[in-house]
Structure formats: structure tokens, C-alpha cells
Amino acid sequence: MNNTKLRIGIVGAGGIVRSNHVPGFRALPDCEIVAVCNRTPESSQKAAQELGIPEVEKDWRSLVARKDLNVILIGTWPYMHKDVTIAALKNGKHVLCESRMSRTEAEARAMLDAAKKARKHGLVTMLCPPPTGFKGDYVMRETLESGIIGTPYLLLTRVCNAALLDKSKPLFWRQQLKYQGLNALVLGMLYEALERWFGPAVSVQARTRIFTPKRPLEAGSTKLGNVERPDVISVLAEFKNGMSGTLHFSGVSLHAGPNAVEVFGEKGMIRYNLDEDRIFAATAADKTPNEVPIPPEKARTWRVEAEFVAAIREGKAVSPSFEDGLKYMAFTEAVEKAAKTGRTVKVQA
User: Fold this and answer.
1) What is the C-alpha to C-alpha distance for residues 330 and 324, in angstroms, rounded to an integer?
2) Domains and CATH numbers, the chain
3) Is-above-0.85 flag for pTM?
């Protein structure tokens, strides 16, 4: 067991870093957050003051090269994930990186290659799990493994809201390729859960639309910027287990109703209500679906920092791993190619 004190440097103190990671690490023994580097010296200093971090680095390269740190937490937008990860690993640091692993499949592969080499030297890499389907993850897997639906035939999934309907809202970083990459809406985050529950998709067809092609660069500004990620995504997917899937994502749907993952098989069905984290199941003998309880002892709770530290100190497996991240990045890229070409595209992770 490795009881070395973990001294943590943060590159990018965004929302999840502030709300979850910082208190999560501070609740663990022998973990100390030492330094932070944000996009600008001013924002770095502000983050340090607000979060009680003793030191500020002006450049992220200097931070990951520090010999007094052994963990790097990456909370930046996806456009920096590859470079910071590889540099941190080369400098002998463990890495915890936010979800949306990277901008492209190629960047994800480069990160995974670096992680595999670093593992030979005892270094741990982990991605932050997305919130979609998080609480009921264990119960969903358990219910599927019980065989209640038999062979799965059809997957129907939708995550729709009206977050992008207001055309006056300024351009967001997630709508720009240079920052976000090929991910769009919650496509990659949801697929991370779907792949865990049902196994991988092997091919996709897709259609995407951008209904507001330009948005103000800032609130109240007359200068406009190009929206580069879609407002709507529709995917037809074939899975390795033989199941067909229809996935709908939208940011322009008022009163869309409940967001859910539904799977129908030869013997029954399961519905995961994503808005309420409630699971329902039924067989042919049931008149209506019955709720499958998520007891406290089976609810997946936020233990990201503890699981990451356990992987470092005890060699425990991480979830999501960089291998998991590559899978959802490969799926995301296949959807992008299918939408652009109008063809069926194989998913190759």
C-alpha cells in the first residue's frame, strides 16, 4: 500500500472542481491541494483566494513540472485535456481529468497511449464520471443482468430540453469546435452509460441540425459568432448484442416530457427515468411497469476522489477509465461522420 501524501495541483478550477473535487479531496486523509493555474493570472489568483489554495502558477506547464506535486487534477475545457494529461504523465504525475475526455478520437487515443506507458511506472489515470444515469447505475446493471427482459431488441433514448431555444443567449464554449471538439449536447455522456449497460455500438446513422447558426459573442453584444455544434441530434445505432437503438438529443424542445432510457426485449422492458433517477420494469405478465427501488446501499454516490485515491494507494480499478473515454469518443466521432456523410459508419474504439 502506498501511503505517500498526495499533493495536488489543479489546472482549470471550473464548476465541478469547485463544488465536488476540492471538498472531495480535502475530506480524505493525506491529500493536500497545493497550487492552481487558471486561464489567466487574475482568474488563478481569484480561484486560489476563493478556494483557499496556497499557491498560484502562471503557466500550467510550470505547474505540472513541479517536483513537489504528484497529482494533477484537470478541470479545463476539453481542448486542453490531451496536452495537460500527456505533460503531467511525462512529469510522473497521477491524472484525474474531467469528462468529455478530449475533442476528438485521435486526441483520446494519444491520451490512452500515454496512460498505458505511464502505468508501467505506477501512475494512475481516471476520468470524472458524467452525472447522467449515475445514481441508478448499479441497479440498472443488476436489473439487466437478472434476465427480466431476455434478449434485448430495441433501445429508445431521449434527452431533450429547451436550453438553446433563446436565440439571444451568447455563444457558449460547448458550441465551439476549438474548445469542445466533436462532442455535442450530452451525446458522449449518455453513451458512456449506455455502453456500460448494454455493451458497445458497432455502427451508426445520424442527422444533426443547427437552428441558430449565429449567436452574440457576449451578452448584449452585436458581434456574432458561429455556432458549430448541433442543437438537435438523432442517431440510429446497432449494438454488438444485436439490439437496435434510437437516440434523440435536443436543446430546442419546450415541454419535452420525461427524459428516459427504455429497453425492450423478448420477455419485458426496463425504463430509466433520467430526470428523477427512477427505474421501472415489466414482463408480459404485468399490467403496468413496476418501480425497481434504488436502496441507499445500491445507489451510486459521488466518491470520485476517494476512488481515484484508492486506485493510487491500493491498486483498485478506476471507472471511467481512459479506455472507457476512448469508447465514447469513438462513438461521438462516428456520429459526426455519419451526420456529415449521410452514410452508415462503423464505431471503432
Assistant:
1) 10
2) 6-128+302-320 (3.40.50.720), 137-301 (3.30.360.10)
3) yes
